[in-house]
Every structure is written in structure tokens, then in C-alpha cells.
Known about the structure:
Elements: H1 12-15, H2 21-39, H3 64-73, H4 77-81, H5 88-92, H6 107-127, E1 131-132, H7 133-139, H8 148-163, E2 165-171, E3 176-181, H9 200-212, E4 217-218, H10 219-227, H11 243-253, E5 257-261, E6 270-274, H12 276-281, H13 284-295, H14 303-330
Antiparallel strand pairs: 1-3, 2-3, 4-6, 5-6
Amino acid sequence: MAFPQKNPQCSPDQLFQTHSETQGLEVAQESKALEEACLSSHPEMPGNLKEAPDAGIPSTSESAQSFCSSSIVTTVSSSIKYGEGPTSKEKEDSTLEVDPDPNNVPIEALDENVSSLVNFLLLKYRMKEVITKEDMLKVISKEYEDHFVEVFQRASERMEIVFGLDVIDIDPFNQCYSIFIKMGLTYDGMLHCKVGVPKTGILILILGAVFVKGNSATEQDIWDVLSVMGLYYEKKHYIFGDIRELITKHFVEEEYLKYQKVDNSDPAQFKYLWGPRAHAETTKMKVLHFLAKVRGTVPQYFPSQYEEALEDEKERAREKVMAITMDSCSHCEF
């Protein structure tokens, strides 16, 4: 079932319109601020995301702030920060040479180069252009070219966690990369041909919150999570815009979320569930893999959610087999 984005047709000039240098710098700096806001909140897993026995992390109820920190917004770069060893992205990037010791690089200078590269990657994403390592090296200060792997890794992590985008090596031999929306989703929230940034990261954050809250999260649950990122109900964000409208209108209209009244609530309260497009394009298992990835573990580490996600995978497989069988029967000659 196809779910096309409900955006009006853009002209080429509108589609490829870019930020000014100042605007671009603000976007990149804001993405860093979003990461830091959540990294500073001492991540723990939420109460609903129960772990295996002896996991060493509390399974009692935790705040929405803890969920934001650990389950979605905690960047994989925390493993670099605390010296926990290489990430999966490091292992996959076999075309990139190992950097000199990043601890010898001033953090401020490294952050400036990461911010510049994030802005460049966002521009390339909007223009739907392939990116080469040579292109990226032109963005990084010459004195930090030897630290390209570190800069690239951190920029990729920020693209993934904040904007919901994957930077994929599509041609290892020629070191070419392309940017795709994460987890099979097909919507980036860049509406009406306006200059802006992808908002898929916010969508993934909400889908994750709904899943770990038992497949139904109240408005308060969602806003408690988003507030950790500086995203508020009554306040427009200067990068992401009107978050309330984005969620209650666009995410709902695009059928990623359902917005329903809580039964027997007085005064009326409302809750969010996954919509049909979320169920069609991604899975609970993909969400759980993402949550596990940012915790540096595996989905089986969270048995309750893993069993639910596994049952969802089995049900999808049964439905697929049934659909194939029915299609084959419809072509049979009796």
C-alpha cells in the first residue's frame, strides 16, 4: 500500500533553495545542542523498557527524560566519549583509515568541523546528491583533515539521532555516500517546499515513546519526552518550527500517528498510537534495534519488548505468506 507524501509540487528553484551561511550554522549548532541536552541527563532506560535479569540497569519506572536520553537521543558518540570501544559504524567503514588519537584534538575545533559537515550533509540531502569523501574534505579545515574519520563519524551520528537520516556508503571503492531516511520510513517532514530541516528524528522519537509506553502514549508522555530536547507545546522551535502542528496535524495527516481520546477521561485527554503508515513502513523490531543500538546492546537484552516485536514479525510473515497464497490461487485454473 503506497503512502505518498502529501506535499504540493515544488519547482526546481524551490527544491534546491539553500540556507544562508548563518542559517546553516544555526542548524548545525542546534543539532549539537539537542544532543548535549539529552546527553547531560544521565541516561537510564524507561520503566516500560524492562531488561533481562542482572542487566545492572533499573527496571522500575523512570522519567520521560530518561527515555529520551537513553532510548532515542543518546548518540553513539557517547561510546567514543567514554572509551567504550568502536561502534558498528566504525567497523563498517572499512574504506576510511584510522584517525590519529582524537583526544589530542581540541573539542571546540572538532565540534566546529562536525557542525560544518552536518550543514553540508543536510544540503546534499535536500538536493538528493551523492556525496564523496573528497567533497567532505573540502568542508573540513585543512589542519583537521587527518581527523576526518572522527569528524565524519560524529556528523553521521548527529544526522541519525537528531534528523532521522542514515549516511550510507554506497560505493566503497570510490568512497561515495548517499543519505536515506531511517528505518524504512518515507517521510521527512519537509513540507510545502519550504526551506527547513528533516524532522524524521522527531517522528522516530515519538514512535519509540509510543512503543515503550505499551503502544499508547498520552499527550503528556510525548511532551515530557520532547521537552528534554527543548521542544515545547506552546513554543515554536526556531529550527523545527511549530512542533505541536507538526505532530497533531502533519504526522497524523500522513497517517504515521493516530490521535484518540482516552476512554472515560474527564476532562478529555488524548493519546497517540502508531498509524497505518508507521505499521506499513517500519516495524517494532526496527524500533527496538535502534533503541538497543544506542544503548550498545542487542534487542534480546529487553525481553518484554523483544517478545512483542518478535511476535509482530511472525504475524507479518504469516500475513505475507497468506497474501502470496491467495494471489497464487487467484491465478489457478480449475
